[in-house]
Design a protein that fits this description.
Length: about 270
C-alpha cells in the first residue's frame, strides 16, 4: 500500500512541476508583445477497483458503493488564453494592433505563419516586415513602402497609405489582411510571437479587417501581453503548495515502507 501511495504522489509532483514551468513561462512573457498566457489542466489517472459498485454481498444484495483507489494525476492539456491584451500607445507609425479576432500573416521559410504582434518595420527594399533581430519576415500580402514616404497611415480596415515627399495627398500602397480560426486553441506555438495552423485549429479564414467577424486595426498602438502578474503569482503559490503536499506524501509513504520492511525482519 505504501508503494502505491508513493507512486501516486509522485505523479502529483510531476504534474505540478510541469504546471510551475507553465506559470514561469507566463511570468517571463509578461512584457512580451501580444503574448497569450497558457493554463495547465489536469485529469485523474486510472482507478484500481477492489470491489465494483453493484456487486452482490453474502446475502445476495447489491452493494451501493464500491472500493477503489486512484493512481494519481497527469496533465491533460495546456490551453492558450486568446483574450485581448491591453493596448499600449507608442505613437509609432508602423506599430499596429488587432482589436478583436484575427492574426497578421507573415512569411517564414516559404510558409505562412500568424502573429498578433504588430511591431512592423521596413527592410532595405522598403518591404513591410515584422521586427526581428533573427529574420526579416515579410508581411503577407506583401506591402512596399516608398522610400521617400513622409507619412504612413493605416486605417481600421487595413488600408495602408503613404504620403511621399513633395505631395499633399496620400496614395494607397497596400492592404493588410487578417486570418481567423474556428479554434485558435488548436494553433501551434512556434516562438518569436508566431503560430502555425494545425488540423485542430482548422484552416485560416482570410479577410478584410472589420468584416465577417474579423477584428479591426488600430495604428500607433501595440497589444500588450494578457498575462496578469498578480494572478500568476497566486497560481505560483498554489502550485508550489500542491507540489509540497505531494512531496510530504512521498516522504510519509517512504517512511511507512521502511517501517514495514523492519517489521518483517522480526
Amino acid at each position: 500500500m505504501g508503494l502505491r501511495a508513493l507512486q501516486t504522489a509522485a505523479t502529483g509532483m510531476a504534474a505540478n512541476q510541469f504546471a510551475l514551468d507553465v506559470v514561469a513561462n507566463n511570468l517571463a512573457n509578461a512584457g512580451t508583445t501580444a503574448y497569450k498566457r497558457a493554463r495547465t489542466d489536469f485529469e485523474d489517472l486510472y482507478y484500481e477497483y477492489l470491489k465494483i459498485p453493484g456487486s452482490q454481498d453474502l446475502q445476495g444484495q447489491l452493494t451501493p458503493v464500491g472500493v477503489h483507489v486512484g493512481l494519481g494525476t497527469q496533465v491533460s492539456a495546456v490551453s492558450d488564453d486568446h483574450r485581448q491584451g491591453s493596448l499600449l500607445q507608442t505613437g509609432r507609425q508602423l506599430d499596429v494592433a488587432v482589436v478583436g479576432d484575427g492574426f497578421f500573416q507573415v512569411q517564414d521559410g516559404g510558409q505562412i505563419v500568424f502573429t498578433r504582434a504588430g511591431n512592423f518595420s521596413v527592410n532595405a527594399d522598403g518591404q513591410l516586415v515584422v521586427e526581428s533581430a533573427n529574420r526579416g519576415r515579410l508581411v503577407e500580402p506583401a506591402i512596399t513602402i516608398p522610400q521617400d514616404a513622409t507619412q504612413i497611415t493605416i486605417s481600421s480596415d487595413g488600408n495602408v497609405f503613404a504620403q511621399q515627399a513633395g505631395s499633399t495627398t496620400a496614395t494607397q500602397v497596400g492592404q493588410l489582411q487578417l486570418a481567423r480560426f474556428v479554434n485558435p486553441q488548436g494553433l501551434v506555438r512556434l516562438g518569436e510571437n508566431l503560430f502555425s495552423e494545425s488540423d485542430a485549429s482548422g484552416a485560416a479564414q482570410i479577410g478584410i479587417p472589420g468584416q465577417d467577424g474579423i477584428g479591426t486595426i488600430r495604428q500607433n498602438v501595440l497589444e500588450a501581453s494578457n498575462v496578469e502578474p498578480v494572478r500568476e503569482l497566486v497560481d505560483l503559490i498554489k502550485t508550489q503548495r500542491h507540489f509540497e503536499l505531494n512531496s510530504q506524501v512521498v516522504q510519509a509513504a517512504d517512511q511507512s515502507l521502511q517501517l514495514l520492511a523492519n517489521l518483517r525482519r522480526f
